[in-house]
Amino acid sequence: MNTLRRVLPLLLLSLLTLGADAPTQQKAGAPATQPTEEDLKQLQPGPQHELLKALVGQFDGDYEIFTAPDAAAQRSKGRITNEIVYGGRFLRGRFDGVMLGKPFTGENLIGYDNFKKHYVGTWVNDGGTSIVFAEGDADAAGKVITMEYEQQDGPAGTEPVRTRLITTLIDKDHYRFETFVVIPGLKPFTAARISYRRH
Questions:
Q1: 170-194 pLDDT tens trace
Q2: Per residue in 49-98, pLDDT tens?
Q3: What is the largest CA-CA distance in the chain?
Q4: How far is CA 106 from CA 126, 128, 169, in A?
Q5: How many degrees, rounded to 5, is the angle at CA 173 between CA 59 and CA 104?
Q6: Per mean pLDDT, which range of 145-154, 161-170, 184-193 is the poorest?
C-alpha cells in the first residue's frame, strides 16, 4: 500500500505528461523524463484549496428562483452539506431541498486546478441529465469565487445558455450563491440567489 501511494502520483503525472506531449512522440531509446519537485508539487493542494475550507459544514439555504428577467421570486428552502474530500483537493457539496415546488437533490465538486490556474467545478442533479463543467477565479481578497460555463438547454442546434456562478463568502457562518444567465432572446438576469447560514 505504501509503495502504491508513492508511485500513484508519478503514474498520474506520467498520464498528464503523455496527454500533453501526444503530438510529439518520444524517440525510441530516449531516456524517460523524470518528474521534478515542482511537478510533484502541482499534484498537491495549495493555498487556493484552503479558501474552500471556509465552506465546510452544514448550511440552511433560503432560495429565490427567477424564471425570467422580470419574474417575481419563487421562494423555497433547502440544506447543503459541504465536506473536503480527496486529501484536501476538492469541496463536495450535497444539496437536498425543494425547487419550484418539487423535491430536488444535487451534488457539486469544486477544486483548484494547479495546471490551469483556475477554480474548476462540476454540478449534477436529479432534474436533468447534463453535467455542468464550470471554471473561474477568486477575487484578490479571496471572498468571491466567480465561475462560468455554457450548456445546451434545448434541442440540438439551439444556442447554448451562458451562466455565471458567483459564491460570496460573507463571514464564517454565512455565504451567498448566485447564478446569472444569458439566454438567447432575453436580457441577462439573475436566475437564482441562495443565502446560506450555518446550521
A1: 999 999 999 999 988 889 999 999 9
A2: 999 999 999 999 999 999 899 999 999 999 999 999 999 999 999 999 98
A3: 68
A4: 6, 10, 21
A5: 15
A6: 145-154
Give the start-to-end residue ranges of the domains of the chain: 1-21+34-43, 47-198
Amino acid of residue 66:
F
CATH T-level assignment (fold) for domain 47-198: Lipocalin (2.40.128)
Beta bridge partners of 109: 92, 122
The Cα 79–Cα 105 span in angstroms is 10
Decide which of 19 and 179 is more confident. Answer: 179
